[in-house]
């Protein structure tokens, strides 16, 4: 495996499995993983895949909870979705696409503590199908999904002057509008004001969820919608659901949004301190393509900076766990244990502490205690895979990026388990 092949697997995908063929053309190999129609994770038997069945299970749990019997379906749905997602990341040959799914799911964070039934469906249906499509399409799918509407409290947001607002004590909730502007699209750099946030929240009134009847998902409740046109960021938007769709499309194609997305993508794929020239290149692709995320992903692969500085990024706990399990060629069933490991290592799946998601810089993950936990966990993995030759594994998953010092330390190790642990916990394995 040469340097370019190693960088392609380590930086752009979820890590190499030793049995993976080395691509003759790394850039073309990565491009092939952006093709439409590639498969996603299959849910275990008994885990509902569609919203009507998910909401029916939630209704049953509400009944059993009131009877003091807990919520038996909640854990089954959440763990089934989580194990399928982690298992697919461990086994998938399309690691670049899986990294993009994880990136965009973090950009549009929803947390399982608040929406346990629908978080997995959100990633499968609002994120995964759009990672190589247009950003504004993903934005609409995300905002209309029950998980996001519930996570940011928009399902009960009522226009003060709407029919419902005039007869109910509940009123406007600005959470969703604020986070779309601040985190998901233009950011404060675009110069929006608190008045814009309030007006945007009025645009989104009536965007709600119907969990107990058709359509079992997004519904526009006209009686809760604030009447009349609204002005957001200097533009007037019509009343009704159409005003919200027009505003989301405009925000999704805004140059400030493209610059924000370019910065985050370059930070994720190149360096914690993203090079301005790389940001400019990805920004230009997003601007000129109208927010085509597939085009932006192909452009990332062709950034000179992405290949010039390998191992510039510290792997997050999720990245590290998946990379280790791929390195030892663990089966997808290893996801069941990995779910708890992510909790131990400080990045529980779909459980970011705030709507801005998990951090994407080394300083947030490099605490000594956190790294020690990684070593302890990797030692246990090495015990179960102690028959593997550490030097062969290092060559297969790190190639020329493995330091001579690591190979010498592994050669002097007192046991095969210790040698394998040294490789899996080496500085270079912790980075991508």
TrEMBL record:
Pfam (any one): DUF1800
Domain of life where this protein originates = Bacteria
**Xref: InterPro entries:** DUF1800 (IPR014917)
Q: Can you name this protein?
A: DUF1800 domain-containing protein
The organism's taxonomy opens as: Bacteria, Pseudomonadati, Pseudomonadota, Alphaproteobacteria, Acetobacterales
């Amino acid at each position: 495996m040469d340097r370019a092949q190693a960088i392609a697997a380590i930086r752009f995908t979820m890590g190499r499995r030793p049995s993976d063929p080395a691509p003759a053309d790394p850039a073309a190999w990565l491009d092939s993983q952006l093709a439409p129609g590639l498969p996603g994770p299959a849910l275990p038997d008994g885990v509902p895949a569609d919203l009507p069945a998910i909401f029916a299970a939630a209704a049953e749990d509400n009944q059993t909870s009131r009877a003091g019997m807990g919520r038996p379906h909640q854990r089954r749905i959440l763990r089934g979705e989580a194990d399928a997602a982690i298992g697919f990341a461990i086994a998938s040959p399309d690691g670049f696409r899986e990294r993009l799914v994880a990136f965009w799911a973090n950009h549009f964070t929803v947390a399982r503590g608040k929406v346990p039934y629908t978080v997995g469906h959100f990633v499968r249906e609002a994120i995964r199908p759009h990672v190589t499509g247009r950003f504004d399409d993903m934005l609409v799918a995300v905002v209309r999904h029950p998980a996001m509407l519930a996570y940011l409290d928009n399902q009960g947001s009522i226009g003060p002057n709407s029919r419902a607002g005039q007869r109910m004590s509940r009123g406007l909730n600005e959470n969703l509008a604020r986070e779309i502007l601040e985190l998901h699209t233009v950011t404060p750099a675009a110069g929006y004001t608190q008045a814009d946030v309030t007006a945007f929240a009025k645009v989104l009134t009536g965007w709600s969820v119907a969990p107990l009847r058709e359509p079992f998902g997004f519904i526009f409740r006209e009686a809760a919608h604030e009447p009349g046109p609204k002005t957001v960021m200097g533009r007037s938007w019509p009343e009704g659901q159409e005003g919200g769709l027009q505003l989301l499309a405009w925000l999704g194609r805004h140059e400030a949004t493209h610059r924000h997305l370019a910065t985050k993508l370059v930070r994720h794929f190149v360096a914690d301190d993203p090079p301005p020239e790389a940001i400019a290149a990805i920004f230009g692709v997003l601007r000129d393509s109208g927010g085509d995320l597939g085009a932006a992903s192909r452009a990332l692969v062709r950034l000179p900076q992405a290949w010039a500085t390998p191992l510039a990024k510290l792997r997050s706990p999720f990245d590290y766990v998946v990379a280790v399990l791929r390195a030892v060629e663990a089966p997808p069933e290893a996801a069941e244990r990995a779910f708890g490991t992510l909790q131990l290592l400080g990045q529980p799946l779909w459980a970011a502490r705030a709507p801005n998601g998990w951090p994407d810089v080394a300083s947030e993950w490099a605490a000594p205690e956190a790294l020690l936990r990684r070593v302890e966990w990797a030692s246990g993995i090495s015990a179960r895979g102690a028959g593997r030759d550490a030097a062969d594994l290092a060559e297969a998953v790190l190639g020329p990026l493995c330091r001579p010092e690591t190979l010498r330390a592994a050669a002097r190790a007192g046991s095969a388990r210790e040698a394998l642990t040294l490789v899996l916990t080496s500085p270079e394995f912790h980075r991508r």
